[in-house]
Design brief:
With 161 residues, this protein is α+β, with helices and mostly antiparallel strands. Helices cover 34% and strands 19% of the residues.
């Protein structure tokens, strides 16, 4: 069962605008207006409203990690030994500052956190684990898995009709 968007703030034009911007965040209000059969000003207002309401968080270019020298994509599962200390909170503060960590999720199950990490090679990833992760207080274990082949990697969120 799919949950619908929890807001009545969106109409069909808003949803189409969101889809178009996910496909190409560089579209100008003029180009968006053309595709939506709207003039520039109302189109700009809708876009601004969606930004103000938080539906559009930011804009970015999707880069090719391999062309930038990041051949290793790793998933690190981090488990803490004691959750009653401030160690997990400090860990989260450290992770927020690390550009090589693409995502960090607090999860249920065996691990407490799952990180997605980029590295140039296995040796670089090893240094990251030893020099960064293992130095964080309270960590009981770190288990790493590596992407052998990327099947699907998108950041687009499906916008319901």
């Amino acid at each position: 069962m799919r949950k619908e968007i929890a807001s009545e703030d969106l109409d069909g034009v808003d949803r189409t605008l969101l889809r178009l911007l996910q496909d190409d965040g560089t579209l100008s209000s003029s180009a968006l207006g053309e595709r939506l059969s709207m003039t520039v000003t109302p189109c700009w207002r809708r876009r601004k409203r969606l930004e103000d309401l938080g539906y559009i968080k930011d804009y970015q270019a999707n880069l090719d990690r391999r062309k930038l020298g990041f051949d290793v994509l790793a998933f690190a599962q981090v488990r803490f030994g004691d959750h009653s200390t401030s160690a997990p909170d400090e860990f989260e503060r450290v992770i927020l500052r690390l550009p090589e960590v693409l995502s960090c999720h607090k999860v249920s199950g065996e691990a407490d956190y799952v990180l997605t990490v980029l590295a140039a090679d296995l040796e670089s990833y090893g240094h990251f684990v030893e020099d960064v992760l293992r130095r964080q207080p309270g960590i009981a274990s770190i288990q790493s898995s590596f992407a052998l082949r990327e099947i699907k990697a998108i950041t687009r969120i499906p916008v319901p009709e």
